[in-house]
């Protein structure tokens, strides 16, 4: 591969929202020399290169030219087969770098490239790419979890930093826990807030009113967690040792919905453990 990032050619397999956004950022900042953008249809490939402003739109692996670096930005269930296809067509060599941006999968999914001596990695930007135009404007400051072969990271880490990313190293054999952390912090938080809305409903409060009531509480709680840390941010019955109130709530919730009751009980116990980690007040 070329000796510097600026001289390296990059082709993107699956130029959807993530692929085209990163391609545009790298193209606009002169980080990589964008070569091919492969999509399942020529229309989508043309749309991707039009968004980026450079690159060659292709819709067939047979049309791909050899590149120094391949980003496989397909859906997770197609990453392995895409890498296999690149290998089958002789596009992977010992000097190639292959990486993907999945949060759930490790770089080991690219094993067919590894067998050819290529360096592999995964780098996961922790943000939504729902609006590529907006993401391309405010990508600076985005955290990216990364793991893989050091040779790949030596190229890709500065490439992401050049477009404003902050990077954090992940243990390859424990990447599933990294992704689980993001699921807890985002997806399951939404589920928990929905359960809160259902609890308000049992008290006769409409869902839109409940959301309005919850908004300042949730925002302030989250801000305090980030500002003070979970232990110090914790408030409420368990935090102040009022287990009588906590147990009454658990029993009431369990009587109304057994599943919610089990969840309340487990969260109560975890909160007891969290409260126990708090430092005693200074005298």
From TrEMBL:
All residue ranges annotated as the Putative oxidoreductase/dehydrogenase Rossmann-like domain in the record: 9-125
Coiled coil residues, start to end: none
Domain DUF2520: 143-269
Signal peptide span: none
UniProt cross-references to InterPro entries, sorted A to Z: 6-PGluconate_DH-like_C_sf, DUF2520, NAD(P)-bd_dom_sf, OxRdtase/DH_put_Rossmann_dom, TM1727-like_C_sf
Record-given protein name: Putative short-subunit dehydrogenase-like oxidoreductase (DUF2520 family)
């Amino acid at each position: 591969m070329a000796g510097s990032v600026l001289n390296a050619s990059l082709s993107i397999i699956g130029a959807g929202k993530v692929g085209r956004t990163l391609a545009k950022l790298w193209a606009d900042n002169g980080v990589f020399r964008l070569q091919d953008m492969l999509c399942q249809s020529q229309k989508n490939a043309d749309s991707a290169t039009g968004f980026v402003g450079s690159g060659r739109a292709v819709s067939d692996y047979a049309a791909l030219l050899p590149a120094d670096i391949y980003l496989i930005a397909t859906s997770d269930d197609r990453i392995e087969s895409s890498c296999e296809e690149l290998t089958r067509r002789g596009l992977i060599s010992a000097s190639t770098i292959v990486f993907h941006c999945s949060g759930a999968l490790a770089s080991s999914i690219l094993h067919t490239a590894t067998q050819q001596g290529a360096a592999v990695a995964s780098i996961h930007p922790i943000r939504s790419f729902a609006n590529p135009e907006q993401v391309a404007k405010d990508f600076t400051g985005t955290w990216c979890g990364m793991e893989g072969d050091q040779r790949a990271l030596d190229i890709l880490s500065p490439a992401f930093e050049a477009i404003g990313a902050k990077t954090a190293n992940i243990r390859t054999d424990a990447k599933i826990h990294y992704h689980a952390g993001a699921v807890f912090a985002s997806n399951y938080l939404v589920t928990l807030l929905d359960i809160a809305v259902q609890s308000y409903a049992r008290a006769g409060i409409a869902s839109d009113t409940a959301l309005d009531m919850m908004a300042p509480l949730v925002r302030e709680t989250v801000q305090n967690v980030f500002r003070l840390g979970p232990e110090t941010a914790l408030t409420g019955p368990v935090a102040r040792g009022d287990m009588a109130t906590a147990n009454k709530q658990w029993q009431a919730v369990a009587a109304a919905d057994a599943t919610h009751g089990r969840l309340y009980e487990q969260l109560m116990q975890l909160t007891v453990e969290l409260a126990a980690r708090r430092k005693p007040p200074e005298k």
